[in-house]
Amino acid sequence: MDDHKIRVGWKMIVVLTLGAAGFAIAPYVLLDSGQSRVSLSASFSLHYPLLLVHIFASFIALIIGWLQFLPGLRTKRPHVHRRVGRFYLGFVAIGSITGLVVGMYTSSYIRQMAFLTLVAFWLFTGWKGYRTARKKRFEAHGVWMIRNYAVTLVAASARLVTPLCILIYLTLHRGMSFQGFEPILNQVLEVNIWVGLVVNVIIAEWMIVNRFKKR
Ligand code: HEM
């Protein structure tokens, strides 16, 4: 693939990702709990505040994370790369811990396990990325940070794969009686995070292999 096609591909990914993440956070920007799409627990007063902290910390990580992959910034301004990197990992830590707490209030076990897996991957890859940078093992650092950002992007990819999951559901269940759209969406929302995670992990590993092939 030539450089121009790769650049166009990257721009499309950035636009789609920011679009999906922006759409997801829209109901939360006015800080009105009545607009929350997550059903809030009546017995846990911190549910909504923690959900907000999760959403905004994770969103900032998603926005600043891609800057770290710009080769110009890394080579010409390494101090900016280091500072943004520390902020990024700080937001990942805040986003993951609050995501873990909020996730345990989700009624579905399948979604709880998806959130638990994401948090574990997010923290582990972030920790490995940090440690390898501290030890000046920059090749390994790049690999771990690709993996880490792939987990960050699950917030967008899980939403982007949702229409595809609906289509697959309808294809697999054709001929069955139609009970309305909501039951279908509820089933799809049980699996979309897992599908988004698998897609991102495959793309990340493919990019890592390609990186080494070019050397
Ligand atoms: C990758 C690690 C992440 C984990 C483990 C995680 C976890 C969670 C959990 C547990 C919830 C509550 C869902 C529910 O109770 O049904 C949630 C909601 C949400 N998260 Fe995350 N999240 C992650 C990344 C992100 C990122 C990077 C963003 C950036 C935009 C984000 C934005 C949101 C939004 C907007 C909601 C509200 C969802 C809705 O309105 O339906 N999350 N997340």
Could you describe the 3D structure shown?
It is a single chain. Helix 4 packs antiparallel against helix 5 (109-134) and helix 5 (109-134) packs antiparallel against helix 6 (138-152). The protein starts with a helix and ends with a helix. 77% of the residues lie in helices and 0% in strands. The chain has 215 residues and is mainly alpha-helical. The chain binds protoporphyrin IX containing FE (HEM). The site of protoporphyrin IX containing FE has 27 residues, from helix 1, helix 2, helix 4, helix 5 and helix 6.
Quick overview of this protein structure:
By secondary structure, the protein is mostly helical. It contains 9 helices and no strands. The chain is 77% helix and 0% strand.
The global form is globular
The description of the largest β-sheet is: none
Please tell me how large the radius of gyration is: 19 Å
Helices and strands, in order, run as HHHHHHHHH
**Mean of all residue-level pLDDT scores:** 93
Q: Which hetero compounds are present in the coordinates?
A: protoporphyrin IX containing FE
Question: Helicity range of the residues?
Answer: over 70%
Number of helices: 9
Low-confidence stretches: none
Helical/strand content category: mainly alpha
The N- and C-terminal alpha carbons lie at a distance of: 16 Å
Oligomer: single chain
Write down how many β-strands occur, each being a DSSP E stretch of 2 or more residues: 0
Q: Approximately what portion of the residues adopt beta-strand conformation? A: under 5%
